[in-house]
C-alpha cells in the first residue's frame, strides 16, 4: 500500500481503503459518524482524502469496521503517519490550492485546457507576477511574490531528469491576445511557450478564434493522470473561493472526451507554433510602437 508518493496522494489512497472497509461492513457514512460521535462530513472528508488522517482516526475506524487483520491495520496506521508529512509547498506557508499541487507533484501526465491565461507550468516569472497581481488586486505584494515562487517551483516538474511531467496544453487565442502586464511581457511569454513546446514531453496546441464554438467553452479544466493504476485520474476545476475535484469514472471519461475534441479542433503542433509566433510578433510590434 505504500510507495514513493507525496502526502496528498497517500491520503487519497488511504481514504479509498477506508471507504472500501466501510462498504464491506455494509455501513453508511452517517452510521459511522453516529457511532464515533463525529460529523458525517468528517467521514466523507477522510474518505475523499481532503482531510488529514490521524492514526487515531484509523484506529477508531478499524475498530468500528471490526478489522481483525493486524497487518492491514498496521499498514493503514503507517499510511496515516506518512500522509501527515509535509509537502515541499508547506515551506511557502498557506498555499490556497495545496491539494492540487499535491496531485500535480505526483502526477505522471497533465492534459490542460486554458481559455484565459497561459498554463501555470509554462509561465515566465514576469507573466506569472502580472497575472497573479491582476487576478488578486487586494493581495499584498509579498504574498504575490510568494505565489510566484510557488508557481516557479511547480515548473521544476517539467525539467525533472528523473521523471519529467508529460504535459499537453490546448491554449485559446484569448489567452494569447490578452495583454497581461504589457506587450513586452506577452511577446516574451509566447516566445517561451514556443520554446517549451519543443521539449519532447511538452505538447502545445493553439485554438484560434476562427475555430468557432468548441467543447471547452464552459471554462478551464485539467485532467491529472498517475503512473500507479490504483490512483485513478482526477479532473480539476479551479474556482474563485473553492476548487472542484472530480474522480468518478463517468466524469473523468466525459472530460477526457471533451479534451479529445479540443485536440482535434485545435491547430496541429507545427501550425500552433507558427500561430503563436505570429501573435508574439504582433505583441512585439505593438511594444515597439509604444
TrEMBL record:
Q: What is the lineage of its organism?
A: Bacteria, Bacillati, Actinomycetota, Actinomycetes, Kitasatosporales
List the molecular function annotations (GO) for this entry. Answer: DNA binding
| Pfam families on file | DUF5753, HTH_31
Domain HTH cro/C1-type per the UniProt entry, residue ranges: 18-72
Q: Which SMART domains match?
A: HTH_XRE
InterPro entries cross-referenced by the UniProt entry: Cro/C1-type_HTH, DUF5753, Lambda_DNA-bd_dom_sf
Instruction: Fetch the CDD domains from UniProt.
Output: HTH_XRE (cd00093)
Q: Matching SUPFAM superfamilies, A to Z?
A: lambda repressor-like DNA-binding domains
- In Swiss-Prot or TrEMBL terms, this protein is called Xre family toxin-antitoxin system, antitoxin component
Amino acid at each position: 500500500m505504500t510507495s514513493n508518493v507525496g502526502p496528498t496522494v497517500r491520503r487519497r489512497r488511504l481514504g479509498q481503503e477506508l471507504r472500501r472497509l466501510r462498504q464491506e461492513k455494509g455501513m453508511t457514512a452517517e452510521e459511522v459518524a453516529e457511532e464515533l460521535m463525529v460529523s458525517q462530513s468528517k467521514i466523507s472528508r477522510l474518505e475523499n482524502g481532503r482531510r488529514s488522517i490521524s492514526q487515531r482516526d484509523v484506529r477508531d475506524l478499524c475498530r468500528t469496521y471490526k478489522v481483525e487483520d493486524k497487518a492491514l491495520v498496521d499498514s493503514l496506521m503507517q499510511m496515516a503517519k506518512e500522509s501527515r508529512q509535509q509537502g515541499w509547498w508547506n515551506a511557502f506557508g498557506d498555499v490556497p490550492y495545496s491539494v492540487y499541487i499535491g496531485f500535480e507533484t505526483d502526477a505522471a501526465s497533465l492534459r490542460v485546457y486554458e481559455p484565459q491565461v497561459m498554463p501555470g507550468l509554462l509561465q515566465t516569472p514576469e507573466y506569472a507576477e502580472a497575472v497573479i497581481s491582476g487576478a488578486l488586486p487586494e493581495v499584498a505584494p509579498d504574498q504575490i511574490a510568494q505565489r510566484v515562487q510557488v508557481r516557479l517551483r511547480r515548473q521544476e516538474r517539467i525539467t525533472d531528469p528523473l521523471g519529467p511531467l508529460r504535459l499537453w496544453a490546448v491554449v485559446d487565442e484569448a489567452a494569447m491576445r490578452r495583454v497581461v502586464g504589457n506587450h513586452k511581457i506577452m511577446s516574451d511569454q509566447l516566445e517561451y511557450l514556443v520554446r517549451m513546446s519543443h521539449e519532447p514531453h511538452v505538447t502545445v496546441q493553439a485554438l484560434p478564434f476562427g475555430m468557432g464554438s468548441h467543447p471547452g467553452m464552459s471554462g478551464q479544466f485539467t485532467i491529472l493522470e498517475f503512473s500507479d493504476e490504483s490512483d485513478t485520474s482526477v479532473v480539476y476545476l479551479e474556482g474563485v473561493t473553492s476548487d472542484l475535484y472530480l474522480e468518478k469514472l463517468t466524469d473523468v471519461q466525459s472530460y477526457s472526451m471533451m479534451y479529445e475534441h479540443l485536440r482535434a479542433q485545435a491547430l496541429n503542433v507545427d501550425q500552433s507554433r507558427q500561430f503563436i509566433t505570429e501573435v508574439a510578433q504582433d505583441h512585439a510590434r505593438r511594444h515597439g510602437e509604444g
